[in-house]
Amino acid sequence: MSEVVSYRLEGDIGVISVNYPPVNALGQGVRQGLTECLRQGLQDDQAKALVVIGEGRTFPAGADIREFGKPPQGPALPDVVAEYEASDKLVVAAIHGTALGGGLEVALGCDYRVALDSAKVGLPEVKLGILPGAGGTQRLPRLIGAQKALEVIVSGNPVKAKDALALGIVDEIVSGDLLEGALAYARKLAADNAPLRRIRDLQAQKEDPDLFSNFEKSIARKQRGFKAPFHCIKAVQAAVELPFDEGMKRERELFGELLVSPESRAQRHVFFAEREVAKVPGLAKDTPKREINQVAVIGAGTMGGGIAMNFANAGIPVKILEVKEEALEKGIAVIRKNYENTAKKGRITTQQVEDRMALIQPTLSYDDLSDVDLVIEAVFENMDVKKAVFSELDRVCKKGAILATNTSTLDVDRIAAFTQRPEDVMGMHFFSPANVMKLLENVRGEKTADDVIATVMDLSRRIGKVGVLVGVCHGFVGNRMLHKRQAEAVQLVNEGASPAQVDKVLFDLGFPMGPFAMSDLAGMDVGYRIREELRKEDPDNAPPRNWTDELVEQGRLGQKTQAGVFDYKEGDRTPVPSSEVDALIAKFRQEQGIQSRDVSDQEILERCMYVMVNEGAKILEEGIAARPLDVDVIWIYGYGFPVYRGGVLFWADSVGLKTIYDKVSQFHKETGNDVWKPAALLEKLANEGKGFYG
């Protein structure tokens, strides 16, 4: 008998209990145990019905990720589910925690489902680039209709118990003790001679004759480049159009296609990488963490306000400081407006708006920050301004408070040196909009204490961010690579490409927008200030002036002025090529003596992407990032690199490092530009026939 699944009799109801911490994942032992215990229950004459339940914190939450990539071991999950569905005794699934993926599929193999009101169910496989492979695409449409099933399966999002009840996924919500509630429900069914209810025998309903084509159209833009959502639609269509067994066969075919697809391989890479980045190499697991009960943010602008919202969202009181009352009032008003807009969309309640605003305390005095555990500076990217701020923080903040900077490029060690406590200083680089973007690029300084690092990495998770630890250099990881790409994009335009052509090539690769549209969205003045600061601080390594500087000086700042590299119509974020900018670029070429030429899309792809790959290799060489996955996660969650390509370095492996190295070497020979000097790591891996991931 299985050690992780047990059977016992509770009065006249047989109880099958899964105990495989932490989440009762459906590994081989659990699958075997579920099968054995079901057979035991069927042979138990005293058992009038059966209940399946999970011990600990959850019903089986899904597949065992430890089995990913390993040869399958029987029994297969579809066979387990089918055996439960074929039971000649009523089986009730008792759900708490999260019944996701295979967990929900097991529950769908049961006749009835009860759940605690705190439970969630769902089929999230699409987020791994696959589809439910144990009958989820065949049973759910038969249970709740094709339209609703598509919404659940294609989104991959969990469904709260009350919503699952309304949909018909669960049959009853129980309060208090789940097992007692499930036993009572099973006894009532048995007493009422309730029928066996095999979902496979139901007919899936298609509410609209054009349902599947319309659904494809509705997701086409959002799911651009992904394969799994469209295979999910095909599988649900099979549930509607085919007998159950044929539908199951079709589901397996589609599942198999996805499993070996590059898109799924990339998505699974991201899944594991996201979990791995939280583990900092060289940092002991038992490193103590400082308590963070109250936070402060310096600056109530777009970044500062967004940062403050992260903490309020997590229930952490946050003070927000500005030097002028007008700026402070404006910042607080923007925060409230953001919350109210979220409430209008139904994502939070009006009460939650007020609760979160109550956690945000505005102030004009540094002295009010004397009791905070963490303060994050979010002021202009100017070293003199940073010096003034950190000198004040050093004066007023209590011993042991963490002093963090949101700088996106500047030297964290220099900033730390403005204080008498460099061990307490760290970078916390949020991405705009800070209350939305998942990435938090945490920068360890030369003297940053281990407990500060451990605290900030843990806090990242606490406020719903994916925290990645990086080292100190100009731009850290993300912006260091980005600036190389942006410079190459500008150079390509200098040589003859149009901004629209460059943007299209990167958009077609899978980015949400191209480099120039991105600059317009962020504000052209942001990059301008960074370049000007670099020209001041390090003129020998600063980028030369170009036509983008002139755009800013002419007041073309991007979407916020309806004019940047592109033109924009009121209320419309669609970039429109600008004849004014075209004329400015032509003038720049003439002044620089540049003869315009045709630039191919392939050259644009190679120069914009390979320069980032090469820089990523240099970053790894220097130890700025500890692992390739750190770089990939930064680009996935900070810059919108397509998940289905796995990150910049994962994508590079798919292209082939020898191919990239040869091109980088060629560009270096042609240009003499050090940016194209091949990284030693890239050269080594290419010559060994390896990739960043082996």
Blueprint of the fold:
Elements (H helix, E strand, L loop, with lengths): L4 E6 L2 E6 L9 H16 L5 E6 L22 H9 L4 E6 L2 E3 L1 H8 L2 E5 L3 E3 L13 H9 L1 H10 L3 E2 H7 L4 E3 L3 H14 L19 H9 L8 H14 L2 H16 L2 H15 L18 E4 L3 H12 L4 E4 L3 H20 L5 H9 L1 E4 L10 E4 L5 H14 L5 E4 L6 H5 L8 E6 L8 E6 L5 H13 L3 E5 L7 H18 L3 H11 L5 H8 L1 H14 L9 H7 L12 E2 L8 E2 L1 H14 L8 H22 L5 H12 L8 H8 L1 H15 L8 H8 L7
Parallel strand pairs: 2-3, 3-4, 4-6, 5-7, 6-9, 10-11, 10-13, 11-12, 13-14, 14-15, 16-17
Antiparallel strand pairs: 1-2, 7-8, 15-16, 18-19
Helix pairs in contact: 1-2, 2-3, 4-5, 4-9, 5-9, 8-9, 9-10, 11-25, 12-13, 13-14, 18-24, 19-24, 20-21, 24-27, 27-28
- Summed up, the helix count is 28
Q: Give the uncertain stretches in residue-range form.
A: none
What is the second-level CATH architecture of the largest domain? Alpha-Beta Complex
**What's the CATH class of the largest domain, please?**
Alpha Beta
What count of structural domains?
3
**CATH homologous superfamily descriptor of the largest domain:** 2-enoyl-CoA Hydratase, Chain A, domain 1
Count the E strands: 19
> What's the CATH topology label of the largest domain?
2-enoyl-CoA Hydratase, Chain A, domain 1
Gyration radius, in Å: 28 Å
Strand content: 5-15%
- State the helicity in percent bands: 40-55%
Structural class, please?
Answer: alpha/beta
Largest sheet: 8 strands, mixed
Within the largest sheet, what's the order of strands?
12-11-10-13-14-15-16-17
Cα shape: globular
